[in-house]
Amino acid sequence: MAAEIRKTLLHVETTFIEGGKSAPQPLKLIAAMAVIRNPWAGQGFVEDLAPAIRDCAPGLGALLTEMVLDAAGGGDVVEGYGKSAIVGLDGEVEHASALIHTLHFGNHYRNAVGAKSYLSFCNTRGPANAPLMIPLMDKHDGGRRSHYLTIQTSVADAPAANEILIALGASIGGRPHHRIGDRYQDLKELGHDADNPAAV
After folding, report:
1. Residue 200 has what pLDDT?
2. Which of 17, 78, 92, 194 sits between 20 and 30 A of 125, alpha carbons compared?
């Protein structure tokens, strides 16, 4: 059975001034969210989560990806990306994890934006109006710190105890005045090979 969706929401935030200084390129953050009934609600401890994952995750991935792309204007303009889920208080954190930590969900988004890096993530349990945090990173380069961003929002009536709030996040641009460099500079300063960080 496909996910039972109570509602969807779209959060779009554009920053024009940061630190009292105009942004050379405004930063746009997008969060596409779906509030669904927890498919394992009321069943007690469920050992095999796979059937519901296969039923629910593909449709959710496709729906939320389409919402992000519509708001962004296409997958090619998305620079940073991530995912998040909050399970209601009657569920397990494993339930939130199950629906976003599967290729049945994430590959819709990854393929649509042409990404190379993994989807950064957050999965928590909480009541209605709990903070939804979506960590983002550059879709091609995990060491590009300008795109280490977090979308923070909430849904006043979700998740209910028997629900899960599922979200995809995107950025168009990075932090407006980023000036802490990238991970590779630190590796060089510490004497590491930037292409092989474990080597000294």
Report:
1. 46
2. 78
